[in-house]
Specification:
Blueprint lengths: L11 E10 L3 E11 L4 E5 L6 H9 L6 E6 L2 E2 L5 H11 E5 L10 H11 L5 H9 L15 H13 L5 E5 L7 H18 L2 E5 L3 H4 L4 E6 L2 E3 L11 H8 L2
Helix pairs in contact: 3-4, 3-5, 4-5, 5-6
The structure holds adenosine-5'-triphosphate and magnesium ion.
The site of magnesium ion has 3 residues, from α1.
Length: 244
Amino acid sequence: MPLHDEGAVPALECRGLSKHYGAGRIVLAALDFALGAGEFVAIMGDSGVGKSTLLNLIAGLDQADGGDVFIDGHAVSRLDDNAATRLRRQKLGFVFQAFHVLPHLTLDQNVALPLLLNEMPTAAAGEMLATVGLGGRGADFPRQLSGGELQRVAIARALVHRPTLILADEPTGNLDPDTAHDVLELFRLQSKLTGAATIMVTHSEAAAAVADRILILRDGGLHAPAPASPAGVSSRALSADDAR
Ligand SMILES: Nc1ncnc2c1ncn2[C@@H]1O[C@H](COP(=O)(O)OP(=O)(O)OP(=O)(O)O)[C@@H](O)[C@H]1O
Ligand SMILES: [Mg+2]
């Protein structure tokens, strides 16, 4: 099954990505994955299966044992540290469960950070804040915001420098269902408008439903979800029950 347009450079490609911890704790087993430009994918899977590990390897926050990561066609895993950092700063945006908005900076300054780091004009920060519904609040500090508003600031910051790829680890994990729904709609819309490809790790079926496709991380690799039976029970759940 082709994962992206033939000939087009994928926003992200993982080839043979492997990671283990300690003796014999294999988390990723030669994982292959490609994400087309502008595509929005949700990754689900049981707790501890390696979803955050996968995002951290792509983000360069953790070191793989083997394999390669290509971001926008660049083999980032083969670059030296400085070049890899530059590439990631330019091409990646992050959204975390705990928002990670810097408390001592105003909203404007928070959103302007990726622009400053990439030596881009910072005027886009105010525009991006307005786009996520926080126009006129640029001089406020994070402590003056609700959780949903904080996550919208984080989304603005992730997108403001027009990255190729957004990595989001349970972005609605700390939000109530209504706020989560609103934030997700905004996230998806803005990702699509800026043309960013997005990987969203989530435990929420409702959150995953906004994605173009859903993949399950299991046994060190990414898999299509098991088809639902007419009773709405997944065949995987059935076979697990049968085994008991
Ligand atoms: N620094 C580390 N040292 C040792 N083991 C680790 C380390 N980081 C993660 N692990 C282990 O690797 C496995 C995968 O962890 P990871 O955080 O990627 O899971 P996850 O799928 O994101 O889970 P959750 O849904 O609970 O967030 C777990 O068994 C975890 O204990
Ligand atoms: Mg995790």
